[in-house]
Amino acid sequence: MQGQLFTQDFLTRGVRETPSWQAFPDVEYANFESDLHSIYKGLSTESTINEAQTEALVINKVLGVL
């Protein structure tokens, strides 16, 4: 996994064992997940948005809900 910040195992399993994850209330996670679904709802893997559009339509919104 050269060039990647985190291993796949950590991202799918290990992160759930961290104190920060365990302290995160389920209801807040559900709200965050719902917000993410709303952001990505109008996009697909075939989207042809450019960098500026990606920043406006996705990145800024995701950072806002974080």
Can you put this structure into words, describing what you see?
The chain is mainly alpha-helical. The protein has one domain (8-65). It is built from 4 helices and no strands. It has helices at residues 8-12, 19-23, 26-40, 51-65. Helix 3 (26-40) runs antiparallel to helix 4 (51-65). The radius of gyration is 15 Å and the shape is extended.
Summarize the helix and strand pattern as letters: HHHH
The Rg value, from CA coordinates, equals: 15 Å
Helix content: 55-70%
Number of distinct beta strands: 0
- Overall pLDDT level: 91
Number of helices: 4
Main β sheet profile: none
CA distance, first residue to last residue: 27 Å
General shape: extended
List the domain count as a whole number: 1
Strand proportion = under 5%
Kindly name the structural category. mainly alpha
Low-confidence stretches: none
List keywords for this structure.
66 residues; mainly alpha; 4 helices; extended
